[in-house]
């Protein structure tokens, strides 16, 4: 995480904040005014950051370019995972894996309990795999298609999916964000998880209740069972549906639980999906490769089935990947030229009391995840910057690591221009502004965390001299 930039002169506050202000103005003006995608507006924001660094701060172009490349480097793993997930989805649909899950799901899951079931299933997968993205790209996709078949609004379904995926991700000792947050804060990972549970537990119960209430409207007479029967008929007329089709998904989840690296596990899953298409679905090699590249296309004449099962492929992820690369170019520039450092120092100077410090940490974390757009960088900067300030004010560092997760990891899936929000949008075609009101766990956890800071409840105390910095 070291940018080796300490020899660069610090920017003034005006220089540091100008690119951020430009980002907000450009993106929001173009999105609200013209409804355009955020790619080009974000590129303009990158240009502003580069111009400030070169012509106002005196940096060379080589410095700016180095910052962009280092920013992108933070997300190369994510880009590779996105690429493989697109290939996997195309293969898993043609291989009958996703259609089989949908077929059984429509038969076995009670419509009124669908949202609750979605929350729980995605939670369990994320806890055991340590990754929200693994959950989103596998069982999350299957639950989304089932929800479409049941007539559940897509915003509600995706809200339940991301709530479960991020609950499990941030409470799993296998999660990279959990490891980074606790590690850079110098907190034992299990103490960190235990402290987070005091916020996440109540938030999860709130989500369960709210999804249960929402789901009650889909009970009994409100459901179109004839449509569900037609969907299942369309699936069985196109695919060979039987429990054997679930083997690839089970194998991938087992590999991830066994700590096989996600890139390797998902790659194996994609290949097995292609083999399943050849062996059990009567596909030929050309159609399998086409589905992996451009996505599977279904044409049954039933719009809802064709719509939800015509997806996936390498090319389907290019929109998402290009957005991630541009946003990380911006984050890399402002971090490498020390703009982020100055912004943090100015925000930290606002905190004069322990309560003000905790509140400032919340909004600074949100500010960072919305600008540098990297979990790793956000957690590293927040936990290392605020750790000593918290200890000097008698507050334990695990308060910082919890805040960093609640206001850094969780809201990332709700930011339309951030990697996680873009990933969800690319998978399901549902805009973050559509599912954000139904991301009950995320919203509740953020609210509870801030309330605890305001009233001083469950803010663990620290006794002793501030510890040394954590590398």
TrEMBL record:
InterPro entries per the UniProt record, alphabetical: Na/H_antiport_NhaC (IPR004770), Na/H_Antiport_NhaC-like_C (IPR018461), NhaC_Na-H+_Antiporter (IPR052180)
GO terms for cellular component: plasma membrane
Recorded GO MF terms: antiporter activity
Record keyword Transport present: yes
Keyword RNA-binding applies: no
Transmembrane intervals: 12-34, 40-59, 71-93, 113-133, 202-219, 239-257, 264-283, 317-335, 356-377, 435-457
Membrane protein topology class: Multi-pass membrane protein
Residues forming coiled coils: none
Domain Na+/H+ antiporter NhaC-like C-terminal: 164-457
Primary localisation category: membrane
Subcellular location: Cell membrane
Pfam families hit by this protein: Na_H_antiporter
Similarity annotation: Belongs to the NhaC Na(+)/H(+) (TC 2.A.35) antiporter family.
Protein's UniProt name: Na+:H+ antiporter, NhaC family
């Amino acid at each position: 995480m070291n940018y080796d930039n300490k020899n660069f002169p610090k920017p003034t506050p005006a220089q540091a904040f100008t690119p951020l202000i430009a980002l907000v103005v450009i993106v929001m003006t173009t999105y609200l005014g013209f409804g355009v995608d955020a790619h080009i507006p974000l590129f303009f924001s990158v240009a502003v950051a580069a111009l400030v660094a070169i012509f106002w701060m005196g940096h060379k172009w080589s410095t700016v370019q180095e910052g962009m490349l280092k920013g992108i480097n933070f997300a190369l793993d994510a880009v590779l995972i996105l690429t493989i997930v697109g290939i996997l989805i195309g293969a898993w649909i043609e291989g009958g894996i996703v259609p089989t899950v949908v077929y059984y799901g429509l038969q076995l899951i009670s419509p009124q309990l669908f949202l609750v079931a979605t929350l729980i299933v995605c939670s369990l997968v994320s806890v055991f795999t340590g990754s929200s993205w693994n959950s989103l790209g596998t069982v999350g996709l299957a639950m989304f298609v089932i929800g479409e078949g049941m007539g559940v609004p897509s915003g509600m379904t995706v809200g339940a999916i991301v709530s479960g995926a991020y609950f499990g991700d941030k409470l799993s000792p296998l999660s990279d964000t959990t490891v980074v947050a606790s590690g850079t804060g110098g907190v034992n990972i299990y103490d960190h998880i235990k402290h987070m549970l005091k916020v996440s537990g109540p938030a999860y119960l709130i989500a369960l209740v709210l999804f249960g209430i929402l789901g009650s409207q889909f009970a009994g007479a409100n459901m179109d069972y004839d449509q569900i029967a037609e969907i299942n008929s369309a699936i069985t007329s196109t695919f060979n549906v039987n429990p054997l089709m679930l083997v690839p998904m089970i194998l991938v989840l087992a590999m991830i639980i066994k700590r096989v690296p996600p890139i390797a596990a998902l790659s194996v899953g994609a290949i097995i999906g292609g083999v399943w298409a050849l062996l059990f679905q009567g596909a030929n090699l050309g159609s399998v490769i086409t589905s992996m590249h451009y996505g599977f296309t279904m044409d049954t004449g039933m719009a809802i089935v064709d719509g939800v099962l015509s997806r996936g492929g390498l090319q389907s992820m290019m929109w998402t990947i290009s957005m991630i690369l541009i946003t990380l170019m911006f984050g890399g520039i402002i971090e490498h030229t020390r703009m982020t450092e100055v912004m943090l120092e100015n925000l930290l100077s606002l905190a004069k009391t322990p309560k003000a410090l905790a509140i400032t940490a919340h909004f600074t974390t949100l500010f960072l995840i919305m600008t540098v757009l990297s979990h790793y960088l956000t957690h590293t900067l927040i936990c290392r910057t605020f750790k000593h300030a918290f200890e000097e004010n008698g507050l334990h560092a695990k308060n910082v690591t919890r805040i960093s997760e609640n206001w850094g990891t969780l809201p990332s899936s709700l930011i339309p221009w951030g990697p996680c929000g873009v990933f969800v949008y690319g998978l399901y075609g549902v805009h973050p502004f559509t599912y954000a009101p139904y991301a009950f766990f995320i919203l509740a956890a953020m609210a509870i965390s801030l309330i605890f800071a305001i009233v001083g409840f469950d803010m663990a105390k620290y006794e002793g001299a501030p510890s040394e910095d954590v590398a």
